[in-house]
Amino acid sequence: MSAKRxxxxxxxxxxxxxxxxTALCAWLRRRGVRAAPFKAQNMSNNSYxxxxxxxxxxxxxxxxxxxxxxxxxxxxxxLLKPSGETESQVVLQGKVWKTLSAREYYEHHEFLASKVQxxxxxxxxxxxxxxxxxxxxxxxxxxxxxxxxxxxxxRKLRAPVLxxxxxxxxxxxxxxxxxxxxxxxxxxxxxxxxxxxxFRGDPALFASGARLLEAKTGKPCLxxxxxxxxxxxxxxxxxxxxxxxxxxxxxxxxxxxxxxxPSDASSVATAIAILRLPRVSNxxxxxxxxxxxxxxxxxxxQYGVVILPGTKNTVSDLAWMRRQGLDGWVREQHAGGALVxxxxxxxxxxxxxxxxPLGVESEQRSVPGLGLxxxxxxxxxxxxTEVVEAVTAKGIRFRAYEIHMGETEKLxxxxxxxxxxxxxxxxxRNRCVGTYLHGALENAAVVEELTGFRPPPAPPKSxxxxxxxxxxxxxxxxxxxxxxxx
Length: 486
What we know:
- The chain is built from 15 helices and 28 strands.
- The chain has a six-stranded parallel beta sheet with strand order 2-9-1-10-11-12, sandwiched between helices. A six-stranded mixed beta sheet has the order 15-13-16-18-28-27. It has a four-stranded mixed beta sheet with strand order 3-6-7-8.
């Protein structure tokens, strides 16, 4: 039996589509509905490997967890990972397919649409309800012919649509009314309701506003949903990573705050800098380090820890570091006593050289690194994507994952960062650590082993998803939702 489905679209990017979809997944699970998430096309450098192999966008991983499921490549059949200003690596059903410009990508529309349908059909045959997340705005008129993820998909799948608008950014009347006014009659028929998201204060105060919008659009309001900045979700998928880094999840609180900082957070030892690389990836690595400073240029402060995060294009971001003067600054920080940690692409940058014989990332065949670790990295076209169980030198066990294109070889004897299936992984040498293990710093005990201080723990994800289900149920017209979408 084919699954019921809903498409959650938005008036714009960053209005809370991923949030609403995750909340709905959690609420459906609470009701005993076997639901699964789906996003046909995602643009994100925040990805995660699925247990069966392949990678998908991190937002769909969170939605799968909210449904009580392991993530699957069919939940996000197309993942675009920006590798430059005009090109993206296309990950198709979990595997790297091609690197294409936008123009080249659209030339493959029919083939990609068939893959989207293929993945959706597999999910629909296994689950009772599919929560489909759209992308950007429903009213992107210039993309109608090449639409794989919004109303074109809803029409093809006969999926009723819920429109989400963000009142916190202002202009919610124009956003909702304008979006609906721009739809073709056949598209407007698919749109069954709208939701007003991120209302600060008592949502009842906007009841008259919701009625005005209902009168203007002819569509019912599912609910006025409150702003819930205290609930933390894995970062929503977006190429506009500055929006993510500037979101409440990454706001640095005042020094000394007992809620998010170690008690000695004002000391040099606990001062952490994370390089805000242009193509930074896998921001969830730093969910515990909420007081860290994200930096783009050298400063005068001496830090206790400097972190080079993952990146979608190591060579390009290393060149950016040199233009910014951050290569010398990292060396100075290390000489001044800082622990320097490189994760994935950051690990590659800390080495002696990055070799690119096949031109995977650059026309340069060999690029010097920062020279802080005695390793050399060779890039190749095959991508490693796997979830692993690791053990640190002091015996701390933790779950992690690898997503990288390249292999790193030690040039001289040095301690490993951890072991994975009895093989050595990464390197530790002279207050410098390199590892491919994303998720290592999400374990408070690992952070303590490396730095000497233990960060405050994050709430368990199960608790977060329960709070999201509560958030949805308290604000939504549940009876209307059941009659319209269930």
